[in-house]
Amino acid sequence: MLVFGAVFGSLGRQVGGLQNSQVAELFAKLGATGEDFTNVFFAAILALMGAIISAYAVQALMVLRSEEAEGRLEPLMATATARLGWLMSHVVIVVAGSVIIFLFLGTGMGIAYGLAAGDTPGRVATLAAAALVHVPATLVIAGAVVMLIGLTSKWSGVLAWSVYALAMLTGPLGEALSLPGSFRGVSPFSHTPALPSADLILAPLLALLLAAGVITVIGIVAFRRRDLGSARP
């Protein structure tokens, strides 16, 4: 992801020459607007990558369902391993992994752009922060997956990817599909500030983190209470 970030960052100096109304409209459909076209470019790339990286969280958490569906979980629970510890180990890995991926993405962008434009430390700080603001939306998606696994493991795979697809359609793709603002508001991606082209607003990020925490707790409680093996066909 550091390399991906560097590739995008290296384009920062060249993107100004691509500025025109059609490109600006394309970036605006990804939620990125502003006077500095380079910042708009980075904001659009981060919005798109943020949505894509969320697929990692879904896929990583689907391991929970796979282990249960394939019958590996019940023997494990017969040992000293507790349900909560097993579940939380996967959740912590996904949360930490998401943060690291976004941090590497923003850092790579900052290093490459900083080397080309100057002020590398400043560019790294700005773009790393711009990448990290996408973490809360990803955690909402991850929390929804945990909740679905806790409530109904058998159907959690289909439902989890359906939630992700809905978030994509109503979020990054919502403007392109000309969806009403009320529909686009359904997606957690729609509530992420488009840094670095926009100002940082903490309220929506805190709301996303709260929502992620609540639905994750619901999933954990539900998982502790339901019978194991329900993911099997």
Automatic annotation (TrEMBL):
Lineage of source species: Bacteria, Bacillati, Actinomycetota, Actinomycetes, Mycobacteriales
Membrane-spanning parts: 41-64, 84-105, 125-151, 158-180, 200-223
UniProt-recorded name of the protein: ABC transporter permease
Superkingdom, natural source: Bacteria
UniProt keyword terms in alphabetical order: Membrane, Transmembrane, Transmembrane helix
